Amino acid sequence: MSGATNSVAYHLDPLSSQLFGLVARPRPIPEPGPDQVLVRVRAASLNRRDLMLMDGTYPVPTAPGVVPLSDGVGEVVGVGANVTRVAVGDRVTSTYFLHWIDGPQRLSLVREQFGANHDGWLAEHLLMHQDSAVRVPEHLTDAEAASLPCAGLVAWSALARPLPVEPGATVVTVGTGTVALSAVQFARIHGARVISVTSSPEKAQRLQELGADETVDRTEVPDWERVVLDLTDGEGAEHIVDAVGLETLPKSIAAGAYNAQVTLIGAFPGGEPVTDPFAGRYLSIRRIAVGSRTDFEAMNRAIVAHGTRPVVDRVFGFDEAADAYRYFRDGRPFGKVVIQR
Question: Taking the model in full, what pTM does it have?
Answer without folding.
Answer: 0.91
